Amino acid sequence: MTVKLICTSHTPLMDFGSPPEMTEKHVRQVFQQLAEQIKAYDPQLIVIFAPDHFNGFFYDLMPAFCVGVRANAVGDWDIGKGPLNVPENTAKDLISALYDSGIDVAHSWRMQADHGFTQPLMLLCQDLQRYPTIPIFINCAAKPLPTCRRTVALGRAVGQFLFTTDQRVLLLGSGGLSHDPPIPQMGQVPPEVEEGLIAGRNPTKEARQKRQNRVIEVGKSLARGENIVAPLNPQWDDELLRIFCSGDIRRLASLTEGGIAIQGGKGGQEIRCWIAAFAALSVYGEYKAQRHYYQPIKEWLAGMAMVSAQPVTQIGA
Fold first, then answer.
1. What is the pTM of this model?
2. What residues act catalytically?
3. 296: left (phi over 0), alpha (psi -120 to 50) or beta
4. Phi, psi (5° rounding) for residue 10?
5. What is the pLDDT of residues 160-205, one digit of tens each?
6. Which of 82, 241, 87, 96 is nearest to 176 (CA)?
7. Which residues face 14 on adjacent strands?
8. 2.40.160.10, 3.30.470.10, 3.40.830.10, 3.20.20.80: which CATH number matches 2-311?
9. Is residue 9 a contact partner of residue 173, using CB atoms and an 8 Å limit?
């Protein structure tokens, strides 16, 4: 029974924005180093906590949390194709265990996983099918959002289930840190845009490309110093990384939606995925974390960070 955690920012602009050459080279080197760690660890089960960007989950039925029993890549930004390798029986056992713990998650036999799931899996595992993987969606974009306190409860319940398994488990948290992508908000956009937020599944290729082009242009504008969205916030990111690495789960649970929005922008709400992953890890006892990378990259609209952690009792074992 062993566990390892890796949390990482994601950004689809990695293949469409142009930060300084050495910056991009360093980011990709760190991802490769972490991928080599995972290959050596050879997980028997991955549990990934990730958000969605109105590609797979919509307001017609928006859960706070959802466990995928079967899942397929949406294919947005051309990141990952085909099904995830979900161990169905284990996923169903996890759902039952969460119910027993008082966490009423939704579950899906046809989850559509967008780049929030697929990018870290592709960068760290090189393939969506390489390892058995249970995807857990956390609503980080469609208000009202689940509280961080409830997100901690979800993570701990997942950790309690995993603690009983005799497997090498890898916890992945995907999202954040500070960033403010141009995600439309209900009540602030025309009816036709609202309809896309309510039931915009499987858009045409042209519609998806138009949406992605808008994000690319925002990244270029921010890089030019045109703050048409909330700027990245390295100070907030640094403090968050310190809290995650310190193991102060109670402090993470106290974070509020309003406070996160002010400091981290709309995309900063995705730190819930990191919170759930670290809360799951905390079930195994005191942990030691390592901060592998941090850099605010305007061209990618992201405070880019990568952190790993494992229980103190497993270090050197």
1. 0.96
2. 115, 179
3. beta
4. -130, 155
5. 999 999 999 999 999 979 998 888 888 888 888 889 999 988 888 8
6. 241
7. none
8. 3.40.830.10
9. no
